Amino acid sequence: MKKRILSGITPSGSALHIGNYFGAVKPQIELQDSGETYYFVADLHALSTVQNREDLERNITSVVLDYLALGLDPNRCVFFRQSDVPAHSQLAIVLANYVTYGHMQRMHAFKDKLQKGVSVESINMGLFNYPILMAADILLYKPYGVPVGEDQRQHVEITRDIAEAFNKKYNKEVFPLPEPLISKETGKLIGTDGERKMSKSLGNIIGIFADEEVIKKQIMGCFTDPNRKRATDPGKVEGNPVFIFHNLINDNKEEIGDLEIRYREGKVGDVEVKEKLFAAHMRLFKGARQRRQELESNLDMVRGILKEGAVKAGKVADQTLDEVYRLIGEKNKLNQ
Fold first, then answer.
1. Is 312 considered catalytic here?
2. Both 125 and 209 in a single domain?
3. How many domains would you assign to the chain?
4. Is residue 200 a known part of a binding site?
5. Rounded-to-integer distance, Cα 152 and Cα 230, Å
6. From which residue to which does any coiled coil extend (predicted)?
């Protein structure tokens, strides 16, 4: 049997850029070829920071369209919204009784807020209870593993703690302990400024689904070799953001090799190197950009995908919740 993997997608609202894609989205989507995969949009988690109806709807729609356009295939995985499967919220209420207040106070998300000077009184319970809902998200599907970044390792660890406490309390292994599948991606993609990691807030990104003119402007504004004053000056390829991006994006490896040789010899200008990078970007993401436009104009189909995914996920989730309810006594002779 294929090992089951569960992966949550946060509807952050930030426009996807190539740093997101190569660092997280691409490896996440590739998981659908390695096991029985469940992907869910963590829309209930988003409420801890997004409490505007229009913003929330836009964020959720954006992440759903992005992932479907980039290759998430509902025929090879189960794709659904967290809020469409009530068992997530129901199990979270149960699991809250098997973790202590002290344990929750040690969680990174809570501690980070305090370290940034936010008062305890202003922290909402959605943020404080975030790890409990995340534990419910995971344990409902009894997955072998959960792909997370290093910063999310602690949330999988508390999920294991809660599962162990529950199993021990009822002397039955209801919940297998999930493994944190930590991404091997250790580096962060440098931004177009050549100094900091690529981030929308820093304005140093190369988008994926933005207008062509916007993407071209982002690429043409890329930092290159600061010591190269003229196109005839020998240039440095190593650590040069434009060549880093070429090696990620450009499918024409022969072209990259030629550009690198000519750049080192001072026989090609930055403009040509960047124009070829833009052309490579348009080739790589052409299909995804077209699919996203098609999906955006056919939201009925998208709703159908999510509805079907919720039905499939609900069957697994409800079975786990029923098992839990019977074990703890919520399912009894009065409601069976």
1. no
2. no
3. 2
4. yes
5. 46
6. none
- Residue labelled with tokens 């440098």: 190
198 known ligand binder: yes
Q: Is 151 annotated as a binding residue?
A: yes
Q: Judge whether 111 is annotated as a binding position.
A: no
Does residue 15 belong to any structural domain of this protein?
yes
Catalytic residue among 2, 26, 113, 229, which?
A: 113
The strand pairing partners of 81, in sequence order, are 41
Which pLDDT score, from 0 to 100, does residue 184 have? 64
**Catalytic residue selected from 111, 116, 142, 197:** 197
Co-location of 164 and 15 in the same domain: yes
Check: CB of residue 15 under 8 Å from CB of residue 206.
no
Which of the following is catalytic: 26, 200, 236, 312? 200
Do 149 and 76 share a structural domain? Answer: yes
Please provide residue 189's backbone torsions phi and psi, each rounded to the nearest 5 degrees.
Answer: -65, 130
Alpha-carbon span 70 to 16, nearest angstrom: 11
183: phi > 0 → left, psi -120 to 50 → alpha, else beta; which? beta
| Residue 199 marked in a binding site | yes
At residue 1 the predicted structure's pLDDT band, cuts being 50, 70 and 90, is low
* Nearest CA-CA partner of 153 in 118, 182, 110, 193: 182
Is 274 one of the annotated active-site residues of the chain? no
113 is catalytic: yes
Question: Is 12 labelled as part of a ligand binding site?
Answer: yes
CATH code, domain with 115 = 3.40.50.620
Report pTM: 0.92
Report the distance separating Cα 186 and Cα 189, nearest Å.
10
H helix or E strand, kind and range, residue 8: strand 4-9
* Model pLDDT for residues 136-191, shown as the tens digit of each residue: 999 999 999 998 877 788 889 999 999 999 999 999 999 999 999 876 654 589 99
Which run of H or E residues covers position 40? strand 36-41
Mean pLDDT of the chain: 93
Is 334 domain-assigned?
A: no
Alpha carbons 88 and 96: distance in angstroms, whole number: 12
**Is 137 annotated in some ligand binding site?**
yes
Provide the 3-class DSSP secondary structure of residue 4: strand
Nearest to 92 by CA among 309, 324, 319, 306: 324
